[in-house]
Amino acid sequence: MDEVNEGPPNRELYALLNLSPEASDEEIRRAYRQWAQAYHPDKYQAPHMKDIATANFQRICEAYEVLSDPNKRQIYDIYGMEGLTSGLELGAKLDKAEEIKAELDRLRRMKEMQKMSAHFRTSGTILANMSLPHCRNGDGLMRGMSMASEVQSQLSKRNSVAIGGNLAVNGNAGGGVATALLRHEISKVSSIEFMASAGLRALIGVQTTRQLSAHSDATVGLAMSLQDGSLNLSNSWTRQLSETASGHIQLALGPQSSIAVGWRKKDERRSASGEVKFGTSSFDVAAHYTHHLSSKSHGRIAGRIGSSTLEIEIGGGRKVSKFSTVRWLYTIGIQGIIWKFELHRGGQKLIIPILLTRHLDPVFASGALIIPASLYFLLKKFLIKPYYLKRNKQKALENAKKTSAQVQEARATAEKAQQLQQTVANRKRNRQLEAGGLVITRALYGNHVILNKMNSSSATSSESASEVIDVTIPLNFLVSDSGQLKLHEGVKKSGIMGFCDPCPGEPKKLYVEYSYAGNQYKVLVDDYEALSIPRGVPRI
């Protein structure tokens, strides 16, 4: 499987010296001196230790040679080691610092243009309405269909354009609309949009948005219909109520004036929203709640009541691949009993509502909910789940076979590096123990699933030992004299001296247990996440 927490490229040399990618020249020199003193071959008498020190000392010198040279570091940051050994290698064509910088600027601009040209985002929806009552009456299963599509493109850093359209057919009637929108970013806190549409709802309009404060923004829009010349003025205000919640007020003035007040709350596991809307001759109240049961499945309940609407919706969905999600929803209301099937893939949606009956019969309504739900759970338990478990296990075994030799070699290299760190790490540990400072009591790096379980239970099985590596010694080695440990953001931890990647292709985390001032703590961080301890974390 692809590693989902893939981070910034070209950071291995920074990890080797435990440096931030933004490290200054002085910080690079200081880190090199520290590592060179620890790994200098002259410090070791035993032949095997001298060989280990020589190999690691050479790695440190190579990293310092690149990072201490401004030109080489610039090339490495953009193109990695391949850039240093390819066409950008210092030679006759690029023998001056000014020429190298000019070439890098040109290539960087070219890369930005290529990246910008790839910034085309497409989205589309196909809605196919079906009706069993119509089919029984001989009018056919299809009741209507609509299609909508939009293409967005980033023209420059400040300008973007969106072009879209939709077509709808309902019985013997149909129509379509084509729209175009140009967005310009005036500043970091404000933007303006120009829009136009042709078709059933031909209009032109302008809309501007401005951030009023760190937690609120406002939008004002004016549109004119090209059919009857009527004007529509819209205003909306949005405010961040907390880290996970926001509220909004929307006001529309025109032939169909309305006011709406709503809120939205979303975190990692759940999302909820509600809105109350009053129009000239109507009102509408809607709410929904979605709960993520796992990383792949979710449940949903929603309700809506208004002048001409009264319905409750229950259902759920499951992620079937990296980009695809399927969903089944059951709706009961004054319009009847409806099944809705949805397929989401990337920015594309296929939605198929099926009207089962217009009569609200209790027995039929119960069966329409219980039978498909029971069938899904039976299929999930006895067919879908066993299949995915078997497939994932097979993939894991295949991946382990392919990378076993590479992992064994990397583990051996890490263990050799830890042998050289042992003496200094023990000395720092004893010094911190005497002062009541920072002592790393246990540290493991590897498969995120295993370490997530450890963080909850503080226990691990022997079966999972092959997918994690003990890094207690390297972290004690990295503790500063002032009793601080810092690992930098954006740097993959497998590149740190004494670390290795125990499970290539799998997302990884770092789990650390430590003592400080007589108290025990634990912390779990992602592969590219910064770590700075001691800090206020839950005690064990």
From TrEMBL:
Protease as UniProt keyword: no
Keywords tagged on the record: Chaperone, Coiled coil, Membrane
Transmembrane annotation, as ranges: none
Location relative to the cell: Membrane
Gene Ontology CC annotations of this record: membrane
Ranges in a coiled coil: 90-117, 390-420
Domain of life: Eukaryota
Major location category of this protein: membrane
Domain J: 12-80
Classification via InterPro entries: AtJ13, DnaJ-like_C11_C, DnaJ_domain, DnaJ_domain_CS, DNAJC11-like_beta-barrel, J_dom_sf
Protein name, per record: J domain-containing protein
Organism of origin: Acacia crassicarpa
